Each structure stands twice: as C-alpha cells, then as structure tokens.
Amino acid sequence: MSSNGQNKLQLSDLTALPRPLYGQRSSLPNIALDYRHRHPWGQLSHALHGVLQVHTDNARLVVPPHRAVWVPAQVAHRVTCTADACIRSLYLDPALALWPGEQCRVIAVDPLLRELIRSFGEVPVDYDLSGADGRLAEVLVDRLRLAEELDLVLPQPRDSRLRALCRKAQARPHASVSLMDASEKAGVSEKTLSRLFLKETGMTFRTWRQRMRLVSALPALERGERVTDVALACGYDSLSAFSAAFGRLFGLSPGELGRGHAYKS
Fold this sequence. Notes:
single chain; 10 strands; disordered C terminus
C-alpha cells in the first residue's frame, strides 16, 4: 500500500492494524455497513455532518454531528446513516484501552476533537510513530480519553415480550404504546413487566419511550424538516414540550440541529 493511502485497505483482510491508531480517510470506505459485523479492534465513528445510527444486540445509539459513538472490539453491530452523512472512522488497537469493558458509548466531540479527527484523516497509513504524525495520534488519543461521555444510549431489553413492545414503539414513535398492552397480550401483570423493563434497561418504560421519541427525531431534523412536523411525528402535541425535552437531552434546540448549529455556524 502506498503511504498516501490511494490503495483501498480492506479491513476484513487484516489481522492487525497498520498502526495502533488508524484512520486514513482515503484508504477507508467511511460508509455505513448496514449488516451485522464486528472488528478485532475498537471503532470510533463520527459524522462531520448527517446522523449516524449504531445498532447492537443490546442498544440503539443515534448520534448527531457533535457526538461520536464508540464500539469496542468484538462487539457485533450494524450502522445506518442519513443520506447526506459524511463519516470519519477511527480504529484503535485494544491495547490503547480507551474505555474499559464491552459497552458502546456516545461521547461529546468539541471543536478541537473534531479538527483532530479531520486532520488525522490526512496522515499516511504508515505514519512515523516517532514523528509529527505520531505525536498527532498521541494528542488525539489523549483528547478521546478526556471526552465527556453522554447518556444517549437507547438500551434494548432482552426479554422477547419487551423487545416486541420496543420494536412496535420505534416503528411508530407517535403512537400510544404502553406496558399495559404488552402485559395483556402476554398474560402477566403490568407491574411484573415494569419491574423487568427497569431491570433490563436501567430506566422506566416511560423514560425509555421519551428518549426513543427524541432520538427518532434526529434524522428528520438533520434533513431540515419543520420542527413542528417532527414533533408531531414523534408523538408530541406541544412544540414547547418537545423543544424543552430535546434541549435537555442533546444540549441544543431542534432548530439549531436543523441549521447545523453545532459546527457549521
């Protein structure tokens, strides 16, 4: 492979990364792989613009441009994104040990970290570990370790009855779906399913449903759809209530996301 990355690197053919931190944009496909797969190394995906969605066996993560998602080594996942998404991916040797465990994470991407990711995408694949590019990699890894972790994961329960309920809710975010419906269908008490949902997801179904509705709004807002229309499509009758809940979760208003406020203004 040439050092400028003109030859495409097939990650599936590698047994080890060319460097502990790898992210040369010209030699990576940087596309969403909408099929279940896994890597022997960790992956950080960040959309310069557009919205990414990462689906694992236990969670759904919907990530706007000012965030990034971390998928640890060997965690099975698939990725989808909005049509206009521009993805930058970093692959990290597990020895770097950014975060412990097998938990996917969403992190904040501040302007400095964003520019470091962009700049690192231009370095040669076989960059000099002791040279300027190697020092850039070290700074980038340090900034990743300092990045704020955000509670933006939408967990998925393991119980088949609850998974069916969640699939139904996610297919129609505006619809009124309740644990009572699932309990009647399953022939168990609503209280039993409520306790099980909390045990398996760490949140009540009501809290989960609100978060699901808000993350479901991201792709439409990124496409520039009217905030009022998006709020209604996600089950909110009040625009003010939708905007307030959205701001608490994402740290910016629905209109700011639609205008690309995070990094385009």
